[in-house]
Design goal:
8% helix, 19 strands, six-stranded antiparallel β-sheet, Immunoglobulin-like, 328 residues, mainly beta, globular, five-stranded antiparallel β-sheet, single chain
C-alpha cells in the first residue's frame, strides 16, 4: 500500500473511533466540567467572620495585630540593677499610639516573664507625650524573656495583647516547671486554688487567701478587683483571657478570702497561673501550675434514631475530609 493510501486509511480509522466515543458520551450523559479548586488559604469566610488568620490565635503570640505593633526601643533586659526599659505601640498609621482606653485601672499593663515561666513581673510603665513608654526594670536571672503589652487603643473595640522576646545577658540556668498544685505560699500568705482548667471552654477558678491559718477577709482593691490573674501556656507562652467575677464596691463582692475568675483555655496542657493580690498596702504574687484537661463530650440524645450508613459513602464535593483533614 502506497503512502497516500496508508494515510487515508489511518484518517478513516480515527473518524470511526471519534464517532464511537461521541455515541458513548451521549448514551451516558455529558461529562461535568471540573469544579474550580481552592487552596486551603483561599477559603472565603462567611459574612461576619473575621477574615484574618491570626484571629484564631491566643493572645500574646504576635508582635502585631489589627495594624498595631509592639516596638521595643530597648534591645535587652538588665540583670540585677534596674535600667530604663522603653518601648512604644505603633498604630495602623505607623505613628506611636497616644490615646488609650483605661482597662483594669491602667492604660497599659506590662508583663515580663522568662521563657521557662519563672521571673514573673506585672508592672505599669509611664507614657511620655510622644507615645514612648518607659520604666526602670531589671530581672533576677539571665535568659530569654517574653514581654507582653496588654492594652486597648482608644476607639478600638477590643483589648490587645502583643508580645516580643528580649534577652537578658549572662549564664542561663533554666528552671523546671513546678508540678501542678493546689496551694502556693508567699510572704506568709497561703493561697488555695479550687476548680480545674478545661480545654476548649471557660473554667471557674476560685483562689482563697489565708494568713497564719485564718482567712483574709479584708483584701484591698487592686486593678479594679480584689485580685488580678494572668495565665500563660507552657512552651509557647500564650496569654490567656482571665476575667474577675465581681468588683469592689458593687455591694455584693466580698473582700476575701475568695477571689473568683473565669479563664478561657484553648488547649490541653500545662499552664502557669499568677495571682496578684493586695493586703496591708502591698501587692504580692502567688504562682501555680495547673493542667488543663478535655471537657466531657456532649451527651448524645437517645430520642433520635441512629442513621444507617449507606453502602457506598458519597465523596464530598470539595474532597476535604477524604484524607482525614478537616478544618477546625
Amino acid at each position: 500500500m502506497n503512502t497516500p493510501t496508508k494515510l487515508g486509511a489511518f484518517g478513516l480509522g480515527l473518524a470511526v473511533v471519534f464517532t464511537a466515543a461521541l455515541g458513548l458520551g451521549r448514551a451516558f450523559g455529558p461529562t461535568p466540567a471540573p469544579a474550580a479548586t481552592t487552596a486551603h488559604n483561599d477559603h472565603k469566610p462567611a459574612t461576619g467572620q473575621n477574615t484574618t488568620a491570626t484571629a484564631a490565635l491566643p493572645a500574646g503570640l504576635q508582635v502585631t495585630q489589627d495594624g498595631y505593633r509592639l516596638q521595643p526601643i530597648s534591645t535587652e533586659l538588665a540583670v540585677g540593677e534596674p535600667r530604663p526599659f522603653q518601648f512604644r505601640i505603633d498604630g495602623p498609621d505607623g505613628a506611636p499610639v497616644t490615646g488609650y482606653t483605661v482597662s483594669h485601672d491602667k492604660d497599659l499593663h506590662l508583663i515580663v516573664v522568662r521563657r521557662d515561666l519563672s521571673g514573673f513581673q506585672h508592672v505599669h510603665p509611664e507614657r511620655a507625650a510622644d507615645g514612648t513608654w518607659s520604666i526602670p526594670l531589671s530581672v533576677a536571672a539571665a535568659g530569654q524573656y517574653r514581654v507582653f503589652a496588654d492594652f486597648q487603643p482608644a476607639g478600638h473595640s477590643d483589648g490587645l495583647t502583643l508580645g516580643a522576646d528580649l534577652p537578658a545577658r549572662g549564664d542561663y540556668q533554666p528552671t523546671p516547671l513546678p508540678a501542678p498544685g493546689r496551694t502556693a505560699t508567699v510572704d506568709g500568705y497561703t493561697v488555695t486554688l479550687t476548680g480545674d482548667l478545661k480545654a476548649g471552654g471557660s473554667s471557674r477558678l476560685t483562689l482563697s487567701v489565708s494568713k497564719d491559718g485564718a482567712p483574709v477577709t479584708d483584701l484591698q482593691p487592686y486593678l479594679g478587683a480584689y485580685g488580678h490573674l494572668v495565665a500563660l501556656r507552657d512552651a509557647d507562652l500564650a496569654y490567656l483571657h482571665v476575667h474577675p467575677d465581681g468588683e469592689p464596691g458593687d455591694g455584693k463582692t466580698a473582700a476575701g478570702p475568695d477571689i473568683v475568675f473565669h479563664a478561657d483555655v484553648p488547649s490541653e496542657g500545662a499552664y502557669r497561673l499568677y495571682l496578684d493580690f493586695q493586703h496591708g498596702g502591698k501587692v504580692r504574687t502567688a504562682e501555680f501550675t495547673a493542667s488543663a484537661g478535655t471537657p466531657p463530650a456532649p451527651t448524645t440524645s437517645t430520642s433520635s434514631p441512629t442513621p444507617v450508613p449507606s453502602a457506598t459513602p458519597s465523596p464530598s464535593a470539595s474532597g476535604h475530609g477524604d484524607d482525614g483533614h478537616t478544618h477546625g
